[in-house]
Specification:
Elements lengths: L2 H31 L3 E2 L4 E6 L5 E2 L2 E5 L4 E8 L9 E3 L13 H9 L9 E3 L6 E7 L6 E5 L11 E6 L18 H31 L30
Parallel strand pairs: 1-4, 2-5, 4-10
Antiparallel strand pairs: 2-3, 5-8, 6-7, 6-9, 9-10
Helix pairs in contact: 1-3
Length: 240
Amino acid sequence: MKRAGRTAVAIGIIAVLLAAGVSTNEISRQASAASVVVDASTTVTVTATSTFSFTPNVINEVPAGAAVTFDFVNGDTNGLTHTFTILACPNITIPTTGPYADNVSAFTGGAKCGTPLLNLVPAPKSSKSMTVTTPTKPQWYEFVCTEPGHFEQGMYGFIAFDSIVPANVTPLPGTPGAGLAVFIIVGTIVTLTVIAIVLGFVVGRREGSQHEMPPERLGYAEPGSPPARPKSPPNAPPPA
């Protein structure tokens, strides 16, 4: 096989491995985004995670027109502050295009939706609870974290009172920070790069050895052979 052919095979193997890693990651993200939790009780517990997401991020069938206790746990092990803020606009989502910070402020600061239905801000690595009277109509609302940069990383979700959040309203699973997934991806890329370099070096050495000129063609004796006898000059008398 020529060098170009071997190189093409190596590149093909690397491409297949990378494609497999990307596909696995996408399947995992879709599964996380599709998860829902049904809570028909009068107590709702939501946890903020270190991956900029809420658990759960979809809450269905919460009693409407009832006194419901919301318990928000800041489970971020990095010590970041998070908020659990339920918008006051029913059946509306904050746009995820354009200036994120402006969009979040417009919907949570009173300009578009008025005062939030609920706004819990516990200290880092702690929790905070509040009992509120929920809306009386069967509707769904979006909840977000209003800390700068957290919404655009996927820190939002949806809650429905006496109803279910529509199937086409699906939150993101959250953005994993510099955690295990990132190290796995970077490590895989580095490993494959090293393999490609080693394969290229080995193939180059083998191809080079096949086309090397034999030592005797260069005027050098082959290792292990007896020294060549000097040739007599033309017309020289025979040795005595």
